[in-house]
Amino acid sequence: MTEKGSGFPVARTVLQQCLQARLQVKPADEHSEAEFVQIDRGIVIYVCFFKGATDEILPKMVSALLNLRLCETDLGKLVSVLELPGNVLIVPQATLGGKAKGRGMQYHNNIGKEDGLRLYGTFVSLCEKELTAAAASGEAEVTVKHGTYGNRQVLKLDTNGPYTHLMEF
After folding, report:
1. Per-residue pLDDT tens for 58-67?
2. Is 60 helix (H, G, I), strand (E, B) or coil?
3. Which of these, 14, 64, 89, 154, is most buried using a 10 Å CB contact count?
4. What are the counts of helices (DSSP H) followed by strands (DSSP E) for the chain?
5. Of 91, 61, 85, which is closest to residue 71 (Cα–Cα)?
C-alpha cells in the first residue's frame, strides 16, 4: 500500500496488539511529576510520515489500521479494534523512517517537523472520530490516547502475543 503513483511509501506504521500500554508524554522536572497516558486492551499504532505525505492519505490509513482484524477476542477469534471494541494508543515514531548508513542511522526521507506535526494531529483526530462512531453503536467505553510529536517518550507495553505488523501507505 503506497501513495498512488509514486511507488514509494509516504507513511510507515507498526501495529501491536496490547493488553495494556502506558506512555510517558512529559518527563518529570523540578516542578512537576512525569505525565502518562494509558490504555487497556486494544492496539498501539506507531506512525512515521515521509516526505511527500499529504492529508489525502490519512483517511485511507485510519480505515485500514482500525479495520484490520488483528485483535484477539477472549474466544481466540481475530477482530478489528473497532469490533473488539478496544482502545488505541498512537505513538509518533520518527525512527521508523531510518535507514542504516555505515554504523549509524539517517532520517533524510522523514517529513519536516511542522508538516509531520500537522499530519500527526489530523491522524489522531480521524482515529478519535472513527473510534467514537464505532463505540456509539455499542455499550463499551473506548478511548484514543496519543503521545507528543517530536519528543522522546517512554513506553511500557503488555502484549498477549507478538502480534506486531508493519504497514506502509
Report:
1. 999 999 999 9
2. helix
3. 89
4. 2, 12
5. 85
